[in-house]
Design goal:
This protein has about 180 residues and is an alpha+beta fold. It has 5 helices and 7 strands, in the order βααββββββααα. It has one domain: Alpha-D-Glucose-1,6-Bisphosphate, Chain A, domain 4. Strands 1-7-6-5-4-3-2 form a 7-stranded antiparallel sheet.
């Protein structure tokens, strides 16, 4: 299987690079990811659950980073096993280029699967891979881009947001207090 794609991320290149290398952000953005642990500067251990057609399994795997050229590009090698469900392995090249006020992320990935996964059929696997990729980037943009918007906002707008949040919390506490008294 081969997959390529591009995404325009509304953040500066350095910020996108840092976010792509933050295990907490990756865990929140990778569909089905249960844990991601940094073993070294270039290796991560990953546990995730994935369903591809009728096959659903927990996969244990690792990601290895190579050809690091911060904040411009790197290569990723990955492999994972899902017990009786089978295994997957592959590689990806990721590059980041500044574009306007954001960053253009381009990737090219190749992967192969074995075991029950290989019996499912490439069209179904391709569809699931595309959906997981789309879900990842949707989550990634929602997770990291709002922080950039808040940082760029004038301090008055920030103060108003915090006032609304604080007011909402106080209102919630007041309601809980009144409910307990009755």
């Amino acid at each position: 299987m081969e997959m390529t794609g591009e995404q325009l991320i509304p953040l500066p290149q350095q910020r996108v690079w840092e976010s792509l290398n933050d295990p907490g952000i990756l865990k929140a953005c990778i569909p089905g990811c249960e844990s991601i642990e940094r073993v070294s500067d270039t290796e991560y251990k990953v546990v995730m659950t994935a369903a591809i057609g009728p096959v659903k399994a927990k996969f244990n795997g690792k990601l290895l980073l190579a050809d690091l050229n911060p904040p411009h590009s790197y290569s990723i090698a990955f492999e994972g096993t899902g017990g009786a469900a089978g295994f997957g392995k592959g590689a990806a090249q990721v590059s980041l280029l500044p574009e306007g006020n954001g960053t253009r992320l381009s990737y090219k990935a190749t992967a192969s699967v074995g075991g029950k996964l290989a019996q499912i059929g490439s069209r179904l696997i391709d569809g699931v891979a595309k959906k997981m990729s789309d879900d990842f980037f949707a989550r990634f943009n929602t997770t990291v881009a709002p922080a950039a918007a808040i940082e760029a906002a004038p301090s008055r707008k920030r103060a108003l947001r915090w006032a609304w949040v604080a007011g909402g919390i106080i209102l919630l506490l007041l309601i809980l207090f009144l409910i307990r008294r009755t």
